[in-house]
Design goal:
alpha/beta; Rossmann fold; 13 helices
Length: about 425
């Protein structure tokens, strides 16, 4: 194409990657090349973490489970695995790799990486090759640029080092991964799972992956948000203008405003995580808390009016039942998003009676439904069962309870542990709980 454009002076790429640009030819002809770095960094890093969580927690599969009516007919969804605390390895610690590391750190994930040279980040462990990195992480994120050295950097050796419990996340380029080897490893269960935004022969993705429940596939949408596409277009125009005027570029970008109803343990954990995504945090609680970095609103309506994403994380009681009502929803508005990880009755929805879900939601593509699986990971259910046993042992031994909610006067409440999580049923579902 360069030969057909003899007067070309600048190539302003509408992406951060320039692997499709003939750089050598441009250098020979003195053609300037620009891309859109930084503008899309946050969105791609967001998606990397989102794919990791979606793959480990099986969010798309859980959504299909609800929409197909299986929650009501078959009961609880299978247990999954948490992302928090997983060892995250990053191939390429550039802008996007660092943004992924920042976000993963908010989930208490130890970070390691491989790059062509060691970076000045002593808190991140450097590995001299991709195989050693894969052998020492649970989630491997591909975030490097594509060049002859990184082509098929994720090969069979790397995949086998990651292993049957490992998860591969690719938000860079499809050609970073030896795709036939990846498909074989997933089919043969030599690899635990994969979250893929890119493929070798786009728009064609390997059809053998379509039926696997340990794979999440999205159509190269890492930077496809309205905000970033507008910013990228502006930056392309500014690059062209800068070429003519010889001026520097500047394109600021910030995260969504997140409002949290209930700043208790879970609410604070949510705040910690979204701060890593550069999201301003607002909150509502009955009393103002001592967190100067977070903006307090004295009513839920005001909180919703000043949030892009509203997260319900408060306990359910007479004060919080239907705390998200019509007035709150209208304040959140047509571009707002509601996330409820508290209890169904927090939201004014007369049909929200688990496991019954309003069927009108099933056909909507702006809704994600999961069957009350907030704590349904092997790790958490094991810890919950252990804590129940520890409380029972403390009661029998006449010691203080570890997590006492109230004292019983006069009579003794006897709990019989019906099923310990370590003896979970063969179908992977949670135990039936406690019989009183």
């Amino acid at each position: 194409m360069l030969d057909a454009l003899p007067a070309l002076e600048i190539v302003a790429s509408f992406s951060v990657g320039i692997d499709r640009v003939d750089l050598a030819g441009c250098r020979e002809r003195g053609i300037r090349v620009t891309n859109t770095p930084d503008v899309l960094t946050d969105d791609v890093a967001d998606l990397a973490v989102g794919l990791a969580i979606a793959t480990l927690r099986k969010i798309p599969q859980a959504d299909r489970y609800v929409r197909a009516g299986r929650w009501k007919s078959k009961g609880g969804f299978t247990l999954t695995t948490r992302f928090s605390g997983k060892r995250v390895g990053i191939l390429g610690l550039g802008r996007i790799g660092l943004a992924v590391a920042k976000r993963a750190e908010a989930f208490d994930c130890p970070i390691s990486y491989h790059s062509r040279s060691e970076k000045p980040f002593p808190k991140y462990k450097f590995y001299a090759n991709a195989v050693d990195l894969a052998a020492n992480c649970d989630v491997l994120v591909v975030a490097c640029s594509l060049n002859p050295e990184s082509h098929h950097i994720v090969n069979r050796k790397v995949i086998d080092a990651l292993g049957p419990e490992g998860v591969l996340i690719n938000i860079a380029r499809g050609a970073h991964v030896d795709e036939p080897e990846l498909v074989s490893a997933l089919l043969e269960k030599r690899l635990g799972g994969a979250g893929l935004d890119v493929f070798e022969d786009e728009p064609f993705a390997p059809e053998r992956l379509f039926d696997l429940d340990n794979v999440v596939l999205v159509p190269h949408v890492g930077s496809d948000t309205e905000e970033t596409c507008r910013a990228m277009a502006d930056l392309v125009l500014q690059n062209l203008e800068a070429h003519a005027l010889n001026q520097p570029l500047l394109t600021p970008f910030s995260g969504k405003r997140v409002g949290i109803i209930g700043l208790g343990r879970i609410g604070l954990a949510v705040a910690k995580r979204v701060e890593a995504f550069d999201c301003p945090v607002n909150y509502y609680q009955r009393t103002k808390q001592a967190y100067p970095n977070y903006t307090y609103y004295p009513s839920v309506v005001e909180l919703a009016a000043n949030s892009d994403v509203l997260v319900v994380a408060c306990p359910l009681n007479e004060h919080t039942r239907h705390i998200v009502n019509r007035e709150v929803m209208e304040a959140l508005g047509p571009k707002g998003v509601l996330i409820n990880i508290g209890r169904g009755p927090h939201v004014d929805e007369p049909e929200m009676d688990e496991p019954n879900v309003p069927e009108a939601l099933f056909a909507m593509d702006n809704v994600v439904l999961v069957p009350h699986v907030g704590s349904a990971t092997h790790e958490t259910r094991t810890a919950m069962a252990d804590l129940v046993l520890a409380n029972l042992e403390a009661h029998v031994a006449g010691k203080p309870l570890l997590t006492q909610v109230w004292k019983l006067m006069g009579k003794c409440l006897v709990l019989k542990l019906h099923c310990h999580l370590k003896n979970v049923s063969a179908d992977g579902r949670a135990p039936s709980g406690l019989e009183v």
